[in-house]
Amino acid sequence: MSGHIYNALIRTHHITSRKKVAKLRQAAANYDTYALLRYGGCPGIMYCQGTESGVKDWVSVVHRLRYKDFQLVKKPAAKELDRKGTAEQHVPYGKVEEAESVKDFGAKMEDMGVWVWWRKGMGYVGDD
């Protein structure tokens, strides 16, 4: 992936439809984006990263699936790492991964260097 990496964060009521997840997997493959879903109960959380157009297109697919309480809490923008010099972790573009719990999702966000950004998006901390 060349150039800037973009990302976005979406909250929904829940993610339980395997049919919708299949559409998200197809969109990730079509737009060469990486997505992480918090599948199961409340809240549903979706993280996406890739090219600017890929992320925007993937978010549009999510929006068209009409998830309950859809909130684009972090609009597509250039990825900001928590710490300068944090190495960009290799992610499997074109794929969707799932996290069983919010705790697991947060651990993945920390691994990717966007934990502070994620916590702000989820409303856990203010925008100091």
Per CATH, what is the topology?
Alpha-Beta Plaits
User: How would the global form be characterised?
Assistant: globular
- Mean of pLDDT: 91
Low-confidence runs (pLDDT<50, min 5 residues)? none
What is the H-and-E element order?
A: EHEEHEEHH
Question: By helix and strand content, what is the structural category?
Answer: alpha+beta
Specify the number of helices.
4
Radius of gyration: 13 Å
Strand order of the largest sheet: 4-1-3-2-5
Our count of domains comes out at 1
Report on the architecture of this protein.
The structure is a single chain. This protein is α+β, with helices and mostly antiparallel strands. It has a five-stranded mixed sheet with strand order 4-1-3-2-5, sandwiched between helices. A hairpin with a 5-residue loop joins strand 2 and strand 3. The mean pLDDT is 91. The chain is built from four helices and five strands; from the N terminus they run βαββαββαα. It has a single domain, classed as Alpha-Beta Plaits. InterPro entries: RWDD2A-B_C (IPR059181).
SSE layout and pairing:
Elements lengths: L5 E7 L5 H14 L2 E5 L5 E7 L1 H13 L6 E8 L16 E5 L2 H10 L3 H8 L6
Helix pairs in contact: 1-2, 3-4
